[in-house]
Amino acid sequence: MTPKPALPHNSPSIDEHLEMHRRMVVTRELERQLGALHKAGVTRGPIHRCDGQEAVGVGATGALEDRDCVTTTHRGHAVYIGKGLAPRRILAEILGRETGYNGGRAGHMLIGSPVHGMMGGNAIVGASIPAATGMALSAQVLGEDRIALATFGDGAAQTGICHESMNIAALWKLPVVFLLEHNEYGLTAHASTQSSVADLYIRAAGHGMPGEQIDGNDVVAVFQAVARAAARARRGDGPSLIEARTYRMEGFSTSDVGGYQSDEDLARWRARDPITLSRAVLVEALGEDRVMDVERAAAETVAAAAEAAQADPPPHFVPHAPSDPRAFATEGR
Amino acid sequence: MAIMRYAEALNAALREAMTADPSVFLFGEDVADYGGVFKVSRGLREAFGDRVRDTPISEQTLAAMAVSASMTGLRPVLEIMYADFMPLTLDALVNQASVYGYVWGDEITLPFVIRTQGGGGLGTGAQHAKSLDSFVAHIPGLKVVAPVTPADAKGLLLAAIQDPHPVIVLEHKRLYNTRAEVPDDQGPVPLGRARVARDGSDVSLIATSRMVVEAEAAADRLAESGISAEVLDLRTLRPLDVEAIVRSVAKTRHAVVINEDWGFCGYAAELSATIMEHAFDDLDAPVERVATRDMPIPFAESLETAVIPDADVITAAALRALA
């Protein structure tokens, strides 16, 4: 890890830190609820939990403005929460309900809410990278004061579109932040079997942009690094690459039988749980009661959301006119 | 009314669209300083500056950027130099544009255009001569047009740029230098409407892109034998003008479907199936299908002409339908 001195204007206030802490707890509770609902047979399809990685998505979005666009992966729940989406409607989407953000059409991997700048989970590994790059292009050409941030994993860092996007973004000085959420695994394969180098931030040099490695389990460190990169993007100085090191505590998805992550690694990273680390700092500053109240309220919010979402109705099928291959067959094409 | 080359008509459409709407953005390989390898974007860099950009050779990412930029207010027009390179763009089309246009519903529009050109006959070899129409016409949420005349080249490209949905414009390398009249006030041509290129009563030659030119030549030959062939230029491959096809087949009772892509699982097969579904009772004979032979396009002229259909092949198919 490369420790970076925190610049004062890039640091979250204690209230901002507490809010990020709350969002991490909401995300963790959401993942736990989903795990329980999966075991109970209430969910459909695979669910990709981000337990242990909450600080990356929450810290990054905490450093952005509402109008900034974020793209994420198939493991994007922390980003959805960080971007301000409501747990009730996230859960409803994941459970395939009419009240979900996308009316049950998207499922948990493709949730989008353009009014929040939440421009999509994306289940094609690597696709979040050119997606954010294109959103930065539109901001630049239209002269709009917004930036884009792509979160993607160490697996996605090996795709061709990752390198193509970084080259174009640096060439055109696009206002984009590349946030590499390194959780050590691409499905079951460890990063050491997928990358010729262990440290991925060094690739930034090959594209002529700044790159740094940070502790992805420290929500304040993530906030600070993204705030620096976002400020650079807003100034018109172009993209940055941030490699946030973290670890995937759960399986690839709810269908993963596991067995390939060592007990030592799991224990080591559990001791560095992002919520535990954040809580220690906040308790020191604000006292235990205040922090525990916030955590309790967060858990209650998610439990109530899960109960409400389960009672919501399933969507009714409606044909999609723009997909119709025949002219004149439907109204409103 | 001015006589224009097909490439000039496309250029006029781009110039007009970029003048009218500052969110129209043109990018692609060699499109800016050089003006495009087929000269379609000549002079636009000078006129519109940074809204016309040369790009790295990164088709996969460029297509994905066109999709996401269009979600956030831009109207990108991306040139993919050869249709043979379109497979590199397929993730952006089939897994991004198609998917998000549906799952996010009315919260976004996707007003981007990809212009490309396909077709053989100029000795460009197996990686620069294909017509991969079926690849893109297969994808829900996309529209696909293939202009044949300079007037339609201008009109369909204008309509494509204005459309709130993704549109793929399939141009043809052997059409760029063809000339014809383009009305001075040529505006957008509605998507999803075929054009009767030639009226006839005995057999319908239903064709796309430059195969319309070959079909017209075939119609000339058939006329020498006293056969009246109708030539239908589909213009839009998706959404398909089913009514125009049914109208023509109901009149002639014989149909030849013609497309320069491969035959097997190809666009011509869709046309044949469409006639079966919507006009079976009108047919006096089975539908004849004309398409490129199911193999890579060879280089030598004597080999290439054996693979890509022409007026002779279409004439023979029409005579079989009428036999």
TrEMBL record, chain A:
Keywords: Oxidoreductase, Pyruvate, Thiamine pyrophosphate. The keyword Oxidoreductase applies. One of its GO terms (molecular function) is pyruvate dehydrogenase (acetyl-transferring) activity. Gene3D superfamilies: 3.40.50.970. Residues 305-333 are annotated as: Disordered. One of its GO terms (biological process) is pyruvate decarboxylation to acetyl-CoA. Its cofactor is thiamine diphosphate. It catalyses: N(6)-[(R)-lipoyl]-L-lysyl-[protein] + pyruvate + H(+) = N(6)-[(R)-S(8)-acetyldihydrolipoyl]-L-lysyl-[protein] + CO2. Residues 22-316 form the Dehydrogenase E1 component domain. It comes from the Bacteria. CDD domains: TPP_E1_PDC_ADC_BCADC. The pyruvate dehydrogenase complex catalyzes the overall conversion of pyruvate to acetyl-CoA and CO(2). It contains multiple copies of three enzymatic components: pyruvate dehydrogenase (E1), dihydrolipoamide acetyltransferase (E2) and lipoamide dehydrogenase (E3). PANTHER family: PYRUVATE DEHYDROGENASE E1 COMPONENT SUBUNIT ALPHA (PTHR11516:SF60), PYRUVATE DEHYDROGENASE E1 COMPONENT, ALPHA SUBUNIT BACTERIAL AND ORGANELLAR (PTHR11516). This is Pyruvate dehydrogenase E1 component alpha subunit. It comes from Rhodospira trueperi.
UniProtKB/TrEMBL annotation, chain B:
SUPFAM superfamilies: Thiamin diphosphate-binding fold (THDP-binding), TK C-terminal domain-like. This is Pyruvate dehydrogenase E1 component beta subunit. GO terms for molecular function: oxidoreductase activity. Residues 4-178 form the Transketolase-like pyrimidine-binding domain. Its cofactor is thiamine diphosphate. PANTHER family: PYRUVATE DEHYDROGENASE E1 COMPONENT BETA SUBUNIT, PYRUVATE DEHYDROGENASE E1 COMPONENT SUBUNIT BETA. InterPro entries: THDP-binding (IPR029061), Transketo_C/PFOR_II (IPR009014), Transketolase-like_Pyr-bd (IPR005475), Transketolase_C (IPR033248). It comes from Rhodospira trueperi. The lineage of its organism: Bacteria, Pseudomonadati, Pseudomonadota, Alphaproteobacteria, Rhodospirillales.
